[in-house]
Design brief:
The protein is an all-alpha fold. Among the domains are: 79-118; 144-156 and 174-273 and 292-359, no CATH class. 56% of the residues lie in helices and 0% in strands. It contains 24 helices and no strands. It has helices at residues 38-55, 57-61, 78-101, 105-110, 112-117, 121-129, 168-175, 178-187, 189-194, 202-210, 216-236, 249-258, 293-313, 320-334, 345-357, 361-372, 379-386, 394-411, 426-434, 439-446, 455-485, 494-508, 519-541, 546-549. Helix 13 (293-313) packs parallel to helix 15 (345-357), helix 14 (320-334) packs antiparallel against helix 15 and helix 18 runs antiparallel to helix 21 (455-485). The longest helix is centred in the C-terminal third of the chain and has 31 residues, at 455-485. The radius of gyration is 39 Å and the shape is flat. The termini are far apart.
Length: 555
């Protein structure tokens, strides 16, 4: 049966194409009922010639030769592509049908409980023997929830009741609303009004200090103007009558409260616990939004820098009680969980300046250490607090050493019974505490609660308890190293340091059994070894008294 000459051929797919192998298996073609006649062959040839002429010379050069229908070659026709598509759809249908009939088949493959359930007891023991624990001693302290994110800054109004305008522009500024006054600040008109004035009004300085808690664009301009006005006022006043406005401790607490800090009056017994609860009185606080750690750090940096200027210009503006309260507030804010990985340069500089501003320094050392030791309940947070104070001044070294001793005593439950007096040196007190830092003793203190009855839960609880013991011992041993490094070892202290080395090796190093399943023990062992080597190096560079070398000389 022949088709008309003007009709399109039934099999309109292109002829077979040879690729790399000319002896490829024959292509699958759909059999036709009647072979095409000669006229159809002529039409196919003309269509092929037209197709290759439209392709261009570049495509013709990179295209393999077209072989005749009788040769063995790969056929890229429509039927073959449709057949592949049908097979893919069929595979997807079979997969969906299998999942509908066996819904738990895929989940059981990745379910740890089911996989452990099919293990035999001897297989489970083999897996536990060669397993590696993922619990490690974190190099970063956990931090405290101090600042809660605010959706909007608290309103900050300028108290202009006692101010008298000296110009129409100043009168316009004082009578404007808060957005209008902020526009004066952003446009620079406020700087033109008060920068070179004879006396800058105090309410304006308080208003600018409160604006340091606003968004970065506003706080940066407020800090710049507050700094310029304060420096300009210092240069305009004579040296003997120099007076600078300095925020009080109450005003600093209000600024911290505006940043989202909790009210310290609501927590008289220690810091805020690790929880996400929101105070009922803080209606504008929310825990849903992600905290802006960088923006918070910038605002705190503005506050710290201005306080540094205040203490440099007028250190006598604050009493010792205010300085101690301010140091406790700053240390509490520095432990915020969002600020753990950010540098504390401005905070450390301010803390050193506050130490130097205390008038009754020897008498205020012990109360300050006791107050700072209750800033947090976590031993690693207290270790980070000790590291806030740099070892660059005599007072800084004294505070680091004494605070480390107080923290160790509190973590070991010996803060009340240990006599912190001047009769015994700090190395002698550390020697009493070091004997209580044995991992087995710490395990008894931390493992007061009974272990679960089930075998699997007992092993997991025992592993968690072992990690807590090593974590606590690691922090305590680091604090002990701070105590020794802060001392100026003299020849008469050679015996006390030698006793510390003996106790370190006896009570801690020999009680740590390393295991591939507990890498935290290895880290604790490394710290104990490094501490022992460091103390031995101090002994080697310290000339001991003669009684340690010749104990029989008096006989």
């Amino acid at each position: 049966m022949q088709m008309p000459r003007d009709s399109f051929p039934t099999d309109w797919s292109p002829p077979p194409v040879e690729f790399l192998n000319k002896k490829a298996p024959p292509a699958r073609r759909r059999p036709l009922e009647d072979p095409p006649d000669s006229n159809q062959k002529v039409e196919l040839a003309s269509l092929e010639e037209l197709f290759w002429n439209m392709a261009g010379p570049s495509q013709q050069a990179g295209t393999p030769e077209i072989s005749s229908g009788g040769s063995k070659c790969y056929v890229n026709n429509l039927d073959y592509l449709l057949q592949e598509k049908r097979e893919q759809v069929l595979e997807q249908e079979w997969e969906q049908l299998l999942q509908q009939e066996h819904p738990r088949l895929e989940s059981s493959v990745y379910n740890n409980d089911d996989r452990e359930a099919v293990l035999l007891p001897e297989h489970r023991m083999l897996v536990e023997k060669f397993s590696v624990s993922l619990q490690v001693i974190s190099p970063v302290h956990p931090g405290e929830i101090v600042f809660l994110p605010r959706r909007h800054p608290l309103p900050c109004f300028l108290d202009s009741s006692s101010l008298k305008p000296h110009s129409q522009l100043e009168e316009l500024f004082l009578r404007s609303s808060l957005p209008g006054q902020l526009s004066f600040l952003h446009s620079g008109l406020l700087s033109n009004l008060y920068l070179h004035a004879a006396d800058c009004p105090r309410p304006l300085l308080r208003w600018l200090f409160k604006l340091l808690t606003w968004p970065t664009e506003t706080s940066s301009r407020a800090f710049g103007l507050l700094w310029d006005l304060s420096i300009d006022g210092l240069f305009r006043q004579p040296d003997e009558n120099m007076h600078l406005w300095c925020p009080s401790l109450k005003e600093v607490k209000e600024v911290f409260h505006s940043l989202g800090a909790y009210n310290p009056a609501l927590y008289p017994q220690g810091p805020c616990q690790h929880s996400s609860r929101v105070l009922e009185s803080e209606a504008s606080l929310t825990s849903e939004d992600s905290p802006q750690e960088v923006a918070l750090d910038i605002k705190l940096s503005y506050i710290y820098k201005f306080l540094v200027l205040c203490f440099l210009a007028q250190p006598a503006s604050y009493t010792d009680a205010s300085i101690l309260g301010l140091m406790e507030l700053l240390c509490r804010a520095g432990l915020d969980v969002g600020l753990r990985l950010l540098p504390k340069t401005d905070l450390q500089q301010l803390l050193l300046l506050l130490l130097e501003s205390i008038q009754e320094w020897p008498g205020k050392l012990q109360p300050l250490c006791c107050a700072l030791s209750w800033v947090s309940d976590h031993h690693h947070n207290l270790l980070a607090l000790v590291q806030f104070f740099l070892d660059v001044t005599p007072r800084g070294r004294q505070l680091r050493s004494q605070l480390s001793l107080v923290v160790i005593a509190r973590m070991l439950g010996q803060q009340e019974s240990l006599p912190f007096s001047e009769e015994k040196t700090q190395l002698a007190l550390l020697s009493q505490l070091l004997s209580l830092m044995r991992p087995s003793s710490l395990r008894q203190c931390l493992g007061i609660e009974t272990l679960p009855s089930r075998l699997g839960q007992q092993s997991k609880a025992s592993a968690d308890l072992d990690h807590k013991v090593c974590y606590l011992c690691h922090s305590l041993l680091t604090l002990a190293g701070v105590v020794v490094s802060s001392q100026d070892i003299t020849p008469d202290q050679w015996g006390e340091l030698q006793l510390l080395c003996m106790q370190l090796d006896r009570h801690i190093s020999t009680h740590i059994r390393e295991s591939p399943q507990a890498m935290h023990r290895t880290k604790l062992k490394d710290l104990a070894t490094q501490t022992y080597i460091r103390w031995q190096d101090l002994l080697a560079h310290c000339q001991p008294q003669g009684q340690y070398f010749s104990p029989w000389k008096d006989i």
